[in-house]
Amino acid sequence: MANRAYNFNAGPAALPLEVLERAQKQFVEFENSGMSLMEMSHRGAVYEKVHFEAVALLRELMGIPHNYKVLFIQGGASTQFAMVPMNLIKSGKAPAYIATGSWATKAIQEAKMFGDITIAASTEADQYRRVPAINELQYSEDTSYLHLTSNETIEGTQWREYPDTGSVPLIGDLSSDILCRPIDVSQFAVIYAGAQKNLGPSGVTIVIIREDLIGQPDLPVPTMLRYSTHAKADSLYNTPPTFAVYMMNETLKWLKEQGGAAAMEQRNREKARLLYEVIDGSSGFYRGFAEPGSRSIMNVTFRLGSEELDKKFVKESEAEGFVGLKGHRSVGGMRASIYNAVPVESVRALVNFMKDFQSRNG
Ligand SMILES: *Cc1c(COP(=O)(O)O)cnc(C)c1O
């Protein structure tokens, strides 16, 4: 069997070994078709089966209601930062954004290209160590929509529960926590997520959109950037990233075999608990970045007492086979990304390393 690293990469991130091995078997010849899936038309029956199986699995695993469309789009979640305002801003109704960290800030910057926006809440004054409480949010009932970032991948914070926005469309960037736990999709008007953290490789972005929001945008929007283009064509308007969709489909099958979103949540909570327990039990040797009430079960961020010690930790962890623990440059310190496909064994190994490192350096 492959010699697998303890992979804590933030994205692209670990994929299930079973998925990689299945894909390897089908890589050169896909289901007796005489060719690889990558070599065939996206209009043929063989690819279409994969495509629509992925849509159906996502619907099943997330419990997506019938009045929502599932779209596969390219350009990453970063393109959604622009597509959301382009398609959903209603003239004269500034959209509202919640500023929770690095990714929310990028979404905000992009939205500002299309007009005024309002900030419903910001935790910048707390260095984005927390998400706001629901009763801190302030937005007009007349706003085009309210945008939130479900999990701030860089700071390591995550919403516990989402605000009930009534008739205001709630838009969620779930790039780094989609399917990490069961959610009620009907709370959202739009959910978007790049696949490369929790659902597969990079190259495909999932958009789940309530049908009544797919119409003629008030702003002029190029064909490829209109939700209606992709919705009308079942995400086959132009060539989709066929291999990425195939890999996502295999990852979704794996997720279902594992017991779905509820089983994932249990496993993710256990992995997160193991790490936060070491941090909290280290008498200050390890310092969690996120406030305990906002801690993410996907990205665990922490620092040591000095930058020198941070560097030493990264260096020694790498020598022991741990990959991806260096935090994002904007926050510093360490980040362990423990997405769905990261096995609990990797986390146990990290816990042992952390305890050992403390005993040698504490
Ligand atoms: C990674 C990430 C993005 C950016 O995704 P791309 O697919 O690289 O554009 C956006 N939002 C969040 C929360 C992310 O984690």
Automatic annotation (TrEMBL):
<dbReference type="InterPro" id="IPR022278">
    <property type="entry name" value="Pser_aminoTfrase"/>
</dbReference>
<keyword id="KW-0032">Aminotransferase</keyword>
<comment type="similarity">
    <text>Belongs to the class-V pyridoxal-phosphate-dependent aminotransferase family. SerC subfamily.</text>
</comment>
<keyword id="KW-0663">Pyridoxal phosphate</keyword>
<comment type="function">
    <text>Catalyzes the reversible conversion of 3-phosphohydroxypyruvate to phosphoserine and of 3-hydroxy-2-oxo-4-phosphonooxybutanoate to phosphohydroxythreonine.</text>
</comment>
<feature type="binding site">
    <location>
        <position position="196"/>
    </location>
    <ligand>
        <name>pyridoxal 5'-phosphate</name>
    </ligand>
</feature>
<dbReference type="InterPro" id="IPR000192">
    <property type="entry name" value="Aminotrans_V_dom"/>
</dbReference>
<dbReference type="Pfam" id="PF00266">
    <property type="entry name" value="Aminotran_5"/>
</dbReference>
<feature type="binding site">
    <location>
        <position position="103"/>
    </location>
    <ligand>
        <name>pyridoxal 5'-phosphate</name>
    </ligand>
</feature>
<dbReference type="InterPro" id="IPR015422">
    <property type="entry name" value="PyrdxlP-dep_Trfase_small"/>
</dbReference>
<feature type="binding site">
    <location>
        <position position="153"/>
    </location>
    <ligand>
        <name>pyridoxal 5'-phosphate</name>
    </ligand>
</feature>
<dbReference type="InterPro" id="IPR015424">
    <property type="entry name" value="PyrdxlP-dep_Trfase"/>
</dbReference>
<keyword id="KW-0963">Cytoplasm</keyword>
<feature type="binding site">
    <location>
        <begin position="238"/>
        <end position="239"/>
    </location>
    <ligand>
        <name>pyridoxal 5'-phosphate</name>
    </ligand>
</feature>
<feature type="binding site">
    <location>
        <position position="173"/>
    </location>
    <ligand>
        <name>pyridoxal 5'-phosphate</name>
    </ligand>
</feature>
<keyword id="KW-0808">Transferase</keyword>
<feature type="binding site">
    <location>
        <begin position="77"/>
        <end position="78"/>
    </location>
    <ligand>
        <name>pyridoxal 5'-phosphate</name>
    </ligand>
</feature>
<comment type="subunit">
    <text>Homodimer.</text>
</comment>
<keyword id="KW-0028">Amino-acid biosynthesis</keyword>
<feature type="domain" description="Aminotransferase class V">
    <location>
        <begin position="6"/>
        <end position="350"/>
    </location>
</feature>
<protein>
    <recommendedName>
        <fullName>Phosphoserine aminotransferase</fullName>
        <ecNumber>2.6.1.52</ecNumber>
    </recommendedName>
</protein>
<dbReference type="InterPro" id="IPR015421">
    <property type="entry name" value="PyrdxlP-dep_Trfase_major"/>
</dbReference>
<feature type="modified residue" description="N6-(pyridoxal phosphate)lysine">
    <location>
        <position position="197"/>
    </location>
</feature>
<comment type="pathway">
    <text>Amino-acid biosynthesis; L-serine biosynthesis; L-serine from 3-phospho-D-glycerate: step 2/3.</text>
</comment>
<keyword id="KW-0718">Serine biosynthesis</keyword>
<feature type="binding site">
    <location>
        <position position="43"/>
    </location>
    <ligand>
        <name>L-glutamate</name>
    </ligand>
</feature>
